[in-house]
Design a protein that fits this description.
By secondary structure, the chain is of the alpha/beta class. It is built from eleven helices and ten strands.
């Protein structure tokens, strides 16, 4: 794919592209593997790509796993493999319940895991909720499922019986998660009509406490995200299936790497 392009040029191309969450982390892992033989350059490369995508938890996860590994090239390839094999969507689709005639499933935005989940769930009535920081329109044009999905606002009068409200997380820490800015208001607005609220986070979303805090320190208003307590969710849907949120958040598969704890602008 990359031919004779240098590792620096590959990384530059990745940082400047606008990709969906998993694709960005996968391509970054591939590009970072080119720096594996030069530890100092690898640290600089990881910090540089994170400076472009500060709110991207899977990218922090990839960089931490690579920098902590005895064999960074192998760690990069393994991280990409795990991201590509993420089964969050499959497990979510298998866990969503059968609905009564007047019930529906509502998703904040249209995250890839939800799209994957709906491929085999054509029996469900599903809507995509448009909020600040999560407009589903573009993602729905690229959806893989044949399911018909309506785009609605949180105050839509048809949202009277929501069996499951699915909220995508861009990052998950020990006690809270980063979600689209308008998701908190949508949860509050729909709480009386919703049976359960599920947080959706795939491979690489759960970070250790200090790495999660470093990610938060780099966020700004332009990121269109906000933090929310895990107590607000009934379940967390991830690669192991649907679990209690704190159980899933405690299962961290990413090391805390000192090189990533310093501010990225240093």
């Amino acid at each position: 794919m990359w031919g004779d392009v240098t590792p620096a040029e590959r990384l530059r191309a990745v940082t400047r592209r606008s990709l969906d969450d998993d694709a960005l982390a996968i391509e970054a892992a591939d590009a970072l593997s080119g720096f594996a033989s030069e530890p100092a350059s690898l640290v600089v490369a990881c910090r540089r790509v994170l400076a472009y995508h500060r709110a991207h938890a899977p990218l922090w996860w990839v960089c931490a796993r690579i920098l902590a590994a005895a064999d960074p090239a192998n760690a990069a390839h393994e991280a990409a493999r795990l991201l590509e094999a993420d089964r969050t969507g499959d497990r979510l689709g298998a866990t969503l319940p059968l609905l009564d005639e007047d019930e529906l499933v509502a998703a904040i935005g249209w995250p890839p895991a939800v799209d994957e989940a709906m491929i085999e769930r054509l029996d469900l009535d599903v809507v995509a909720v448009r909020v600040d920081g999560a407009d589903p329109t573009g993602a729905l044009r690229r959806r893989r499922t044949d399911l018909s999905v309506r785009v609605v606002d949180p105050w839509d009068p048809t949202l009277t019986r929501v069996a499951r409200l699915l909220v995508p997380a861009t990052a998950i820490g020990p006690n809270e998660a980063v979600v689209p800015h308008g998701a908190v208001d949508a949860i509050a607005m729909l709480q009386d009509a919703t049976a359960e609220v599920w947080l959706v986070g795939g491979v690489g979303r759960v970070l250790p406490a200090r790495l999660y805090a470093t990610l938060l320190a780099g966020l700004n208003d332009d990121d269109e995200t906000v933090t929310i307590s895990l107590e607000r969710f009934d379940r967390l849907a991830g690669p192991r299936g649907v679990e209690r949120p704190h159980d899933a958040a405690a299962r961290v598969d990413c090391p805390t790497v000192p090189e990533l704890l310093r501010p990225l602008n240093e």
